[in-house]
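Q: How would the structure tokens look for this protein?
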Amino acid sequence: MIRIGIIGSIGSGKSFVAKLFKYPIFDADKEVKYLYKNSRECFRKLNKILPKHVRSFPIRKKELIIAINENKKNLRKISSIVHPMIRKKMNTFLNKKKNSKIIILDIPLLIENKLNKKNDVLIFVKTNRKKIIERLKKRPNFSMKIFRSLNENQLNLSKKRRIANYIIDNNYSPNIMKKKINVLKKTVLDERNSIRH
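A: Here is the predicted structure in token form.
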């Protein structure tokens, strides 16, 4: 199985690029949303450390954003509870998909939380900053302050670019992007097959 990790800045279009591969995706953001909506265990733990903000189930993202805005340390507290749960879900996903030729890991903190492996193919999604801000402004609950806090939590972008096996420029139309990903997919498969032989 080839594990492809999609890395890059918040709002760079990682999920869009991930979908273009047309292989099973582990989407960490989607899993976090699911936890907030359905996991009473997650609620109990967050309620215990942030009783002032997380008061009722299901957990509202808005409450967590207020908590982070009030104190940056709260982001670390939230992460300490949510990340182990996501790691568990990722392992379940990997077991289920172990016969898939390729799986895609769309995890914002893939490198930071050491969820990647040595043999993973890392693809860095490059997007110009103006486009990133435009995209993020369309998101509900967007705040520049949160964007900065989350960005601080991410490995320096130039470092991510350096460790990536490939860089994909996401400043083109969806059709061009589709073609670019198809070429990249073929390259990755060819390269892995030549290593095996």
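The two ends are 15 Å apart (CA to CA).

The chain has a mean pLDDT of 89.

Upvote if useful.
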